[in-house]
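Crash report, auto-generated. Payload:
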Amino acid sequence: MSQEVRVRFAPSPTGALHIGGVRTALYNYLFAKKQGGKFLLRIEDTDQARFVPGAEDYIKEALDWMGISPDESPWHGGPHGPYRQSERKSIYKEYAMDLLEKGHAYYAFDTAEELDAMRQRLTAARVVSPQYNSITRTQMKNSLTLPADEVKARLEAGEPYVIRVKIPRKEEVRLQDKVRGWVMVHSNTLDDKVLMKSDGMPTYHLANIVDDHLMKITHVIRGEEWLPSAPLHVLLYRFLGWEESMPTFAHLPLLLKPDGNGKLSKRDAEKHGFPLFPMSWTDPDSGQVADGFRDQGYLPEALVNFLAFLGWNPGDHRELFTLEELVEAFTLERIGKSGTKFDINKAKWYNEQYLRKKSDHELAAYLTADLKKEGIQIPQDNAEKIVSVMKERATFPADLWKEGRFMIFAPETFDTQVAEKKWNADAAKVLTAYSEKLEALQEPLDAATAKELLAVSAEECGVKLGKVMQAVRLAITGVGAGPDLMQVFEILGKEELIKRIGFSLKTLGIAG
RNA sequence: GGUCCGUUCGUCUAGGGGUUAGGACGCAUCCCUUUCACGGAUGAAACACGGGUUCGAUUCCCGUACGGACUACCA
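Recovered output after restart:
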């Protein structure tokens, strides 16, 4: 019998979700759905000092926007709640006591200063890595060194203490990681990590093991930064008697900065002008606003596709995947091992691809929304026509309006470079003739007619159409590049064209 | 420093003991075209290095170099 696959994404609410965290969430989601299992979200808020208001709402909104909402979470609830660690405080204590009783953990009363002094002493003695371990714990104030009655007295007196794990002196700890294979470390390189803090909260190490077990998590998919502490986690499963049901681990390669090396940071994002967060985030302390992918015009389906390919690939040559297709194709086995540099160009390319897949109807909504901000209203069918000719050249929805301004506003100035090179008396002659033909036209202008009339006008003036085409474009749009001119003409309509021709003839002159 | 992890075009990557080392982004050129863009075609561009193992290694093993993560009463 195969048990239900259950995975979790476990962010701590310390601010906006980092894009790397979003990818971790996505991989968890993809794996869960592929396996027909559950994707849960657990808030790891055991560090009260780092709690940031609004962060949890942000996480929820970001995942919803990406289309990867969890099945169980603080806000959806579920059979294994609560899903906020701060609300599970009493649970952890119970397991810490269990560890204490079994001799796998002990009380420690050392103050921060004493800890510091120990590290300094060790550093001075040229100990390579000063840590609280099987050697040093014999010289510290803990329930291993202090007489039992003193420990009891200190506890009863309410003296602050932590509970530390007692790492065995000599043991090989192995774990099989789904992406790295076998990883082996010696327990003597591990230190006696704090399990329960003096404020009564568990540390990540205890909390994540207890919760994963209680929440019946089958696979732990998380960032590579957790790999060094994974052996400790294996040990904890063993000490708690849960080794049989220990989840499978998969440590994801890190997201690296685009140039040079190192973990992707906010600094890099700013330097290269791309966001680091899925959505904009306002720091509640400084009030500083950091831009997000959503705000810069990235489509969620593009971001999902892009992120999925940062460290994973389907093994064939397909590049474009919907969320559903990703679910279908996803396997842990195809996750790469090495760190991945963040290339925003590729993200833009994905955005273009998905933008072009959208219907004119959907795209028109972006345009009308932008226009509304400027107090402009245009008919829906007009908006749809505009986006249909503009979408091939847009990366972001906002480009529809930015690049297509001339579709609504007549040019007030003309690109001087193009004017110098292309504007001449021939162009003025042709346009004058063209304007007259448009005046005489009874029915509404369509692209084919627009072209025919223009061709006739050129012929009458004894000018080759190709020679003046750029000048015509300049006269109507003000610039030298843009979508198919005749389509533009059709959208503009003859009255608007006549007006624009009149203005450009006046402004650019008829002699050239 | 220590522990762990990694290394195929500039980037994301496929591949795997014998291949013209494949694709995508970006770049260049050409075609399409009234321009730009789209699209199409073509091109430049990679197995970090040194030892093994082997008839043969980019692929397997070991080193070296380089890079990264971790090294908190943070997660």
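Post-recovery validation: Residues 88-252 of chain A form a domain with the Glutamyl-tRNA Synthetase; domain 3 fold (CATH 3.90.800.10).
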